[in-house]
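User: Sequence in, structure out. Go.
Assistant: Echoing your sequence, followed by the structure tokens.
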Amino acid sequence: MTVNQPYKMCVLGLGAVGQRMLEQSAGHPDFDVVAGFDVAAPVVAQTQSQYPNVTCYPSAEEAIVASACDAVYVATPPLYHAELVRLAIQHGKAILCEKPLGVDLQDSADLVSVMQQSGLPHAVNFVFASAPAVQHLQRDIAQSEDPLEHIHIRLHFHQWPRPFQAHADWLSGAAQGGFTREVTSHFIYLLFRLFGSVHIDAVQGQRPSPERAETQLSAFLHAGNVPVTLVATTGGEPQETVSARFLTAKAEWRLENWYQLTRRDSTHPDGLVLTQDADPRGATYQAQLSQLAALMRGQSHSLPDFDVAFQVQRVIESLLAQTPSPTP
């Protein structure tokens, strides 16, 4: 990259999240996706048709090397993250890795060490790192004279995997899928960001068989000194729910549908909207890319590094380890 030119990005994994990066980077001044790789021929054909300036290569290494990219976005299923991150490190690239960092804790611990030793710019793609709603929430909590008494996280998915990911069979398996790794991990990261630590007190979950992903999971946790309840379910009610409620004795903040923040108190019993973006989803993704650009320039940024992502992974895998399949 030269002055005032965008960073060249290579996207490894062109499924749902890879396509989202292609869409969002097309509208961001700091990034230009120039290369891609995926093992699935249909998504490669779709990418080349929709984004003719993106060259798709037959291997991940060719995509990284031939494109002379500045940054690599690893957007594959998590079992392949470590291999591709190491490849990007080998070629000296800045790295944005999709969450979760990995599945195997020892593999991820080794990856954190290798990543830190490389000295390369790196981050993991937790969207709450840059969300305007979360920035507002963090500021309000810090300034509130009324301490938090409880946090309640509620997740519900009528269908898992969700319709836009229905083609991704791995999301329905226990090996690397499930809503706990895919969605709950964002909220565990949020708790780390806001309170610095997360501890599990009790877990109850269920999966239909050892090979299948969890279908429900409930837990009691602590984020710092604040008690947290987590309830996540699938099936039943067709309306998807993704929300976190932060309660004090006198007020409540609600983070709903990922990006919408409201405050409820005696003055605003129906809720005061605190996020004003016409497109809060788009604003969050654009902010994430701006923070990645700041990271690559050596400037202050809000993105979590691999060590933070590993702390999240430890909590997630502990929750899943306590989620058994039915006894025959």
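User: And one key feature?
Assistant: The chain is about 35% helix and 25% strand.
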